[in-house]
């Protein structure tokens, strides 16, 4: 069994931290894990892409070939569309519904709001879950739970290779204790929302 998970977003959203949580969670479960990041101009709001592969046997490369990712976790709708070629035909998309306006759109006066990207995903892929990142962050009292909220959505899909309880275990071990309560709240909130939608 090998699970390939691609995470994408922009600098400052917690994409790299999320990829490390997935990898370390897999290792805690006795699996092999490999990761790689393409960060570029992330600190200036540029694109961030993280590859995570988890398997019960050694993994030769951390890089995910196109059209083979089981899960695409997108912190921003436009980034989801930009990286969609990595997803396999029946793969799962977990996407934050809030757009982050790129510098080019701001300079050109574009009214980019991510809605076209979301419509494209929903029209062309059968397993798309929208996560209202702003709402969840508001409910939990911190914008720092966005990455955990998206991971919770992926775990709830059953395609991440990590259970919701496994994710909570990873939070206990990998994040500061003072942040545990708000992150657990984000996990439970997302899990509850997805169960209602099912």
Automatic annotation (TrEMBL):
Annotated ranges, domain Pyruvate/ketoisovalerate oxidoreductase catalytic: 11-188
A GO term for molecular function: oxidoreductase activity, acting on the aldehyde or oxo group of donors
Sorted UniProt keywords: Oxidoreductase, Pyruvate
InterPro entries on file: IorB_Oxidoreductase (IPR052198), Pyrv/ketoisovalerate_OxRed_cat (IPR019752), Pyrv_flavodox_OxRed_cen (IPR002869)
Pfam families, sorted: POR
Protein name: Pyruvate ferredoxin oxidoreductase
Record lineage: Bacteria, Bacillati, Bacillota, Clostridia, Lachnospirales
């Amino acid at each position: 069994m090998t699970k390939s998970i691609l995470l994408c977003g922009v600098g400052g959203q917690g994409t790299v931290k999320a990829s490390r949580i997935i990898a370390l969670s897999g290792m805690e479960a006795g699996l092999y894990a490999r990761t790689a990041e393409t960060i570029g101009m992330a600190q200036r709001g540029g694109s961030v892409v993280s590859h995570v592969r988890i398997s019960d046997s050694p993994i030769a490369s951390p890089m995910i070939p196109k059209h083979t990712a089981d899960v695409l976790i997108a912190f921003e709708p436009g980034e989801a569309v930009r990286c969609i070629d990595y997803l396999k035909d029946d793969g799962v998309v977990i996407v934050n519904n809030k757009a982050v306006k790129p510098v080019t759109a701001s300079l050109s006066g574009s009214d980019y709001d991510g809605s076209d990207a979301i419509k494209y995903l929903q029209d062309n892929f059968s397993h798309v879950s929208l996560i209202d990142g702003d709402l969840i962050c508001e409910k939990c009292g911190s914008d720092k739970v966005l990455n955990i909220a998206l991971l919770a959505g992926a775990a709830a899909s059953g395609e991440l290779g990590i259970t919701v309880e496994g994710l909570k275990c990873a939070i206990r071990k990998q994040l500061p204790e003072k942040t545990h309560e708000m992150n657990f709240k984000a996990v439970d909130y997302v899990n509850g929302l997805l169960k209602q939608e099912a």
